[in-house]
Structures are given as C-alpha cells and as structure tokens.
C-alpha cells in the first residue's frame, strides 16, 4: 500500500467516490499541516453484508492518504435504536462485528496495525460523557433530534426515548474520539449537520464530514440487512452468491439503480484499479477495464451483457469472501455466529398439536412494496381492475384485483401498496395476474376494504416482512396444494392501532410498520 505524499494527492484519495464533503477548506488546511484523524462507526445490529466493503474500500483510501483511522463498534447505539440489538445479545454481536470487520479489512489487504478499534461502551458510560449527554439534552429540541435521526434511527409509530438520544451520542463521539472528521453514508447527513450545529454550543469544535453515496442493493434499492434478497451475506456459500446475483436487477443498458455496477464502482475498482469482464471467446473474450467510466459506457451501449457482468462480479466477490469464510469456519467463530444471531423459533413448533412438517411461517411469503403505475377496468369484468405495479423488477407486473366497488381508480393510481409476489400466476377472466394486492377488510356488514399502506418513503421492491421473521428466504412460488398463504392468512389481523399483524407480530419494512387507514380489528 503506497502512501500518498502531497496534500493535493491525499485530498484526492480521501474524497474520491464520495457524494459530499462538509468542510472542504478545513480538510485541505489540516492536510497541509499534518495527517487527518478520522473515524467510521458501525452500530452492531444486523449481520454485516457485502455492501460493508464500500466503507472498507474508503478506509483503505484513508490509510493510503496517511490518515489516522479509528473504527467505532457502536454497541450502545445498536441498543438505543429501537433495541435492534437486544441487551443480552449485545456482547456477542459486538464480538461478531469485531471479527468480521477485521476479516473484511484483511481480505482487501488493509494492515490492521494501522487502525484503532474502539467500542462505544469503552467511553460512553463514563462520568464525563454522561454529563455531556445531559448538557446536550438541555440544548436540543425534540423536533431537531427526530429530524436528525429520520434516515438512520428506526421509525416507528410510538418511538422510544432511546432513539431520540442516538443523534446526540453520535455527535459527542466526534469529541470523545478526538478526531477531525467523521465518515459515513449520505443517509447520515442530518446527524452530521446536527453535530455541526450543536457541538460548538458545548464549546467543542465543528468537525469535517465525509459522505459516501448509498449503494443500491441487488434489488435496486438500498442494500439492507433486513432485506434478504437485497444483500449477500459475508458467509454466504458460493452457490448462494450465484443465486442472489442471478436474481439481481441488471437490465441491459440500464445504469440507474444498478447494484451490480455500483459494487464494481465503489468496491472492486478502488481495490484493484481495474476490472476484468470474463467472456467466452465467441463473444469477444475477456476484456480488462482500467477506468470505471469506460465499463459503464460499454454497458450502457450493450457492448457488455448483464450475464457476463454478473459472472465476473461473482468471481471477484468470491475471491474477497473466501478468506472470510475460511476464518469463520473455525468452531469458535461458528459458535459466536450462532450466539450473536440465534435463529427465530416459530411459535407453531412450541404448540402441542402442531406437526413440524406442516409448519408454515411468514418468511415463506414474498411480500414487497409496490407502486401502482396504471389502473384500468378489466375489459370483461366490471368488478375487476387490471393494474401495472412496479415491484423493483425490470418490468412492472400485471395484477388483477377485485377492488372496483371498494377503492376508486384515482385512489389506486401512483399509490404504494403491499403486493404478494410469489403466488402462482392465475388467469382472471382472460388476463394473467402475477400477484395479489393485500387489503384490510371489515368483519361486519356492509363490507369495507382499505389498502394496506407501507410507510411513506418506501421504494418499489422493498421487502415487507413479519417481525421476528426477517431472515427467512421466501419460496420462489407458493404451491397451491400446500395452501401456505391460506394457513398464514387465518392469523392475519389489523390491530387496534390499525397495524397489519400476524399473530400479534407487526408487518414491517425497514422504515416502519404497515398499516391501514381505519379498519381496527379487521381481517387481511
């Protein structure tokens, strides 16, 4: 790893591929005098996945630029964020993160001795830090902290006080870690500007903030720990990597929201300064690209085929994952993985009369956020609509719904809905329907029907799951004879707060709960 020399070269390395820098002048002034001190923090919640190679790649850049880099394992933050990491699992999850992040850094050739690793609870429980939390809480408004955490802290209908503390702690970390700059995703921007506003109120310096773009996941939306198909786990087997990449959104010629291209740009190119597209000789043979723009141009002009791109990423990605898989094949780390992320045990298996082979669980359903692109009356059935619904795939799905007498056409147009996507396609009066729009229904007469509503801000294609069943893999297609949906639907209800539930467990997206407008106690 050859270090950069002059301030301009260091500045280029530190800022390349970033979406935004707050404090550019201060950054250059520091680089002219000494090395930059910077930290990156990660809350120890869901399992890290391959998107974590994006910040790892930037950390490699920071080290090449001579920076003093601290990595914070934010264990206390993980608990405060709506208890994403339960207290009893906090220690194991933090140890898992420490091991897996270090394994990732080693796999891309980053020397660990040049990094400083810190846990939040090493200093966040001290008398001085705690007093500063109280001092800060006397200065900030509830409105400002809610706004600051809007894109990072889990948004729920009745937020816990702990989530409101989160942005303040992240601001104070900059002072207590004695850094010049904090690095994170652009989704952290509101927390960064919050820190810039309030740290000087406590007599502390305003820091520099460096922001990575949000890299699309394999479905075309943000890569997320809670969306199984949008991410490749660091310990996934090679056959799982192949399967998930095969499903990845990579439309010929389309460079927008293309997770495969984004991974090449933000991880593979910075690490190797080149990327090789592997092709059979009859399609022109292998081609080496030494700059990303040339590859993107060839893909946009369909010189590079999506299949070849995916195969090439698969080979390069497995080279990064092999040493991590090998490290985690040890009995000690296998045990740690199981302790940090215990499998959720479905409630049915604990009932006396249930038979395991007949057990059905909500994770078998492929429920997604859909956006209604168009709505037309069915040409041969007055009670049916024919909708085109975007669920994050290359083409919108055609869906037939019996909603004419319940939902006006104009209320459906451009609406976010919840779509069950893995039902067997079914011809409805001559039109094939490839999904089912989920709705709440009143139990009494006259019958009322309302659409289930994902949280505002969701993207088409985001996964909808039942609380506690985030990690399961949906079936490719539900077999009608097994009646999986029908068995689960028997326990679907709308709560007194109008939240969609299965056995009193909430329907969720990464932005919060799925609800209906008013049908308390209704069926789904």
Automatic annotation (TrEMBL):
Record EC number: 6.1.1.1
GO molecular function, one term: ATP binding
GO biological process terms held by the UniProt record: response to stress; tyrosyl-tRNA aminoacylation
Name assigned to this protein: Tyrosine--tRNA ligase
Alphabetical UniProt keywords: Aminoacyl-tRNA synthetase, ATP-binding, Cytoplasm, Ligase, Nucleotide-binding, Nucleus, Protein biosynthesis, RNA-binding, tRNA-binding
The TRNA-binding domain, residue ranges: 361-465
First-level EC class: ligase
Catalytic activity: tRNA(Tyr) + L-tyrosine + ATP = L-tyrosyl-tRNA(Tyr) + AMP + diphosphate + H(+)
SUPFAM superfamilies for the chain: Nucleic acid-binding proteins, Nucleotidylyl transferase
InterPro entries xrefs: aa-tRNA-synth_Ic (IPR002305), NA-bd_OB-fold (IPR012340), Rossmann-like_a/b/a_fold (IPR014729), tRNA-bd_dom (IPR002547), Tyr-tRNA-ligase (IPR002307), Tyrosine-tRNA_ligase_regulator (IPR051270)
CC annotations in GO: cytoplasm; nucleus
Source taxonomy: Eukaryota, Metazoa, Chordata, Craniata, Vertebrata
Location within or outside the cell: Cytoplasm; Nucleus
Family named by the database record: Belongs to the class-I aminoacyl-tRNA synthetase family.
